[in-house]
Amino acid sequence: MNASDAGPPARPGDDLPAVAPQLRALRRRAGLTLEAAAREAGLSPAHLSRLETGQRQPSLPMLLALARIYGTTVSDLLGETVADRDAIVRSRDMEPTRAGGWTYFQAGAPGRGMQALRVRVPYGSQGDIVRVHPGEEWLYVLRGRLRLRLGDTVHLLPPGDSAHFDSLTPHRLAAEDHDGVELLFVHTLLQSPTATLCLGPLTGELP
Predict the structure, then answer these.
(1) What phi, psi does 108 have (nearest 5°)?
(2) Which residues in 68-157 belong to E strands, given as ranges?
(3) Helix (H, G, I), strand (E, B) or coil at 52
(4) Residue range 148-191, pLDDT digits in tens
(5) Whole-number Cα distances in Å, 69 to 31, 73, 165
(6) Is the entire prediction scored with pTM above 0.70?
(7) Cα 193 from Cα 11, distance rounded (Å)
């Protein structure tokens, strides 16, 4: 069994096995056999079969991998409908989430292929972390100055400047000034927890 096959068995009352019918339907819609989909996701066919029949719970990394392979979103895997998603996000409802010194505010509706955030980056926080992950990123500097490294090139972005890049390009974000920097941030990484938004797999550091 692959290491990625690990996952808890389904228990009565668990919510995640409800995704089982969606997993099978979306795989078939994508025209993939059980073996082909399992291979792409780094799972054994037996484990994917157990996910599809509700005998095992899918972990978030598994859902992310399957959503990418099936050309859909985790929300679709979970059976959410467009009617379940609120198109308007009120500022009073933007609860902050903190991770690695950064503060994130959800600025977009959940369950979409793109995720929008308002991000506060304090000075000296995570400036040495290199981010590399699938998708695209767009950011706009609201306040302060951002030091953005794309590949081997460093850019200094004052308020009003923006950047749009392929996030497979190794990149680093850091506040240039001691007062920190505040950004609007949109990216296409599928439905990760807020704490891992903007981060992706980290080079030279454990996740």
Answers:
(1) -130, 165
(2) 96-99, 102-106, 115-121, 130-131, 136-143, 146-150, 153-157
(3) helix
(4) 999 999 999 999 999 999 888 999 999 999 999 999 998 875 44
(5) 11, 10, 22
(6) no
(7) 23
| Strand blocks (E) in 18-123 | 96-99, 102-106, 115-121
CA distances to 46, 62, 111, 143, 153 from 77, rounded to whole Å, are 19, 11, 10, 37, 38
- How close are the terminal C-alpha atoms of the chain, in Å? 22
CB atoms within 10 A of CB 135: 16
Residue type at 1?
M
Residue from 3, 25, 2, 14 nearest 56 by CA: 14
Quote the tokens at residue 110: 């959940």
Amino acid in position 25? A
- Comparing CA positions, the residue from 120, 116, 100, 119 lying closest to residue 108 is 116
Distance of CA 180 to CAs 26, 106, 122, 196, Å?
43, 19, 4, 20
Q: Residue 175 in contact with residue 144, Cβ under 8 Å?
A: yes
